[in-house]
Design a protein that fits this description.
219 residues; alpha/beta; Rossmann fold; 7-stranded mixed β-sheet; 43% helix; 16% strand; globular; 2-hydroxy-3-keto-5-methylthiopentenyl-1-phosphate phosphatase; HAD-like_sf; HAD-like_SerB
């Protein structure tokens, strides 16, 4: 078994979805319709999230970063989980539809930046502008923004056992590409409905236990 792990950030590593929390705190009316459109898959992730951030003034950057630092909360066991993957020599990549300006401060000193795939935010105009450096490859036409299946295809090798850890509808396409999914919340329900091999989790202590079981089974 040659495992490789692709882990979501918002609502997975953190206790809450930071984009939703930011919008509740700072955005004017109109953002919820965009959010609902994304979650119901009526509009693409990049369109919905890009329009949500375009509602926010660039001058809010420092306030948003401090807000996320104060409220996000890292899910219990994450630091130990990272240490476990290093000791077991399991490649770990963070693949997130979130933004660099609030992900990097929260992961600082935990993981090197070249293990993190996310979107970029720019604050040189009146409103926040989002750039999508990891767009869909020719096998995906979902306009994902940060396309998790495309990243998986780029990084992983054919003989690797792909494990996805996530929580939301934005992780579902990646889950369909995985050999095994460790899920919570909406993604857990989707895995059950679609009969994707999976197990549920609440903390990263649970994740470590599941991984050890998987490694024993596949050994």
């Amino acid at each position: 078994m040659k495992p490789i792990i692709f882990c979501d950030f918002d609502g997975t590593i953190t206790n809450s979805d930071n984009i939703i929390a930011i919008m509740k705190k700072f955005a004017p009316l109109g953002w919820e319709e965009l959010k609902d459109g994304v979650l119901q898959q009526k509009i693409s992730i990049s369109t919905g999230v890009g329009k949500m951030f375009s509602l926010l003034d660039s001058s809010l950057k420092d306030d948003i970063i401090q807000f996320v630092k104060d409220t996000a909360g890292i899910r219990p066991g994450f630091n130990e989980f990272v240490d476990f993957t290093k000791q077991a020599n399991i490649p770990l990549y963070i693949v997130s539809g979130g933004m660099d300006f609030f992900i990097e401060p929260l992961l600082n000193d935990i993981l090197p930046s070249d293990c993190v795939y996310c979107n970029r935010a720019y604050f040189n105009q009146e409103k926040i502008l989002i750039e999508w450096p990891h767009t869909c490859d020719n096998q995906c036409n979902n306009d994902c923004g940060c396309c998790k299946p495309s990243i998986m295809r780029e990084i992983s090798e054919a003989d690797e056992y792909k494990i996805v850890i996530g929580d939301s509808v934005t992780d579902f396409e990646a889950a369909k590409q995985a050999d095994f999914v460790i899920a919570r919340d909406i993604l857990l329900e989707r895995c059950r409905t679609e009969e994707i091999p999976h197990q549920g989790f609440e903390t990263f202590y649970d994740v470590m236990h599941i991984l050890k079981q998987q490694m024993e089974v596949k050994a």
